[in-house]
Amino acid sequence: MTDEQQIRTLIESWAAAVHAGELTTVLADHSPDLVMFDVPPPYDGVRGMDAYAETWPGFFEWQKSGASFELVSLDVTAGAEVAFAFALLRCGTPDEFEVKPDVRLRLTIGLKKLNGRWTITHEHHSFPHDDQPTPVVAAEIGSVLDRWGTDTAAGDLDALMEPIADEVVSYEIDGNYTGKTAVREVCAAGLASSPNSISFRVPDPTVVSAGNLAVAWSIDHVTADGTETTSRATRVFRQSGSTWQLIHQHLSYPAS
């Protein structure tokens, strides 16, 4: 085999061993002074074979939840004594891929030819940092709340329900409701409670976010038949693809 083919076979065997949880094969063909930059800390890298070996048992346990570790692409460049490869892998659980189907683990490997055999001296694993800045998320959540105002005024129940997750749990003023069907019935009753258009406004929501979750809290203003009421609201949203869906809300009045 050419050097490139030897390295490709080495890395493919390593990836298959990782997925199978075969520690001996995972550790094979690695230099004793290996340095790995991994997804979790330490930030200055994992150094040496003992430290490298200690990173894998926990990962193998996580894989037992149904997670995958599969090469998607692999490119190899080899010189006479030094080589490097870069790859993309599907690394995640089914639930994670449902939310972010295109996420990939990025891998760069450095190799040396030692005693006539290609040996891994460096690994760098990472995921792209795709957290959106909070102001961007706040604007997107604000758009959802504004849309609810527009749809409430129009009495459009179907549109109101679009940003609501099937498994939503809602602590409403008059009770607790689980599931989109139950929340739909609450919204339908609210729209039917007034013969006139109802106004729903959230003037100044506060939003914090991390990853695919965002929390918003606010004072809601609802006007029906000329009477305005305000209530306290905490809402949790989960990003699914390019949209945000409500998975939990808690509404209340202060105790008198």
UniProtKB/TrEMBL annotation:
Keyword Isomerase carried by entry: yes
Source domain of life: Bacteria
Any one GO molecular function term: isomerase activity
InterPro entries reported in the protein's UniProt record: NTF2-like_dom_sf, SnoaL-like
Gene3D superfamilies: 3.10.450.50
Record keywords, A-Z: Isomerase
All residue ranges annotated as the SnoaL-like domain in the record: 7-128, 142-255
Record bears the keyword Isomerase: yes
UniProt protein name: Ketosteroid isomerase-like protein
Upper classification of the organism: Bacteria, Bacillati, Actinomycetota, Actinomycetes, Propionibacteriales
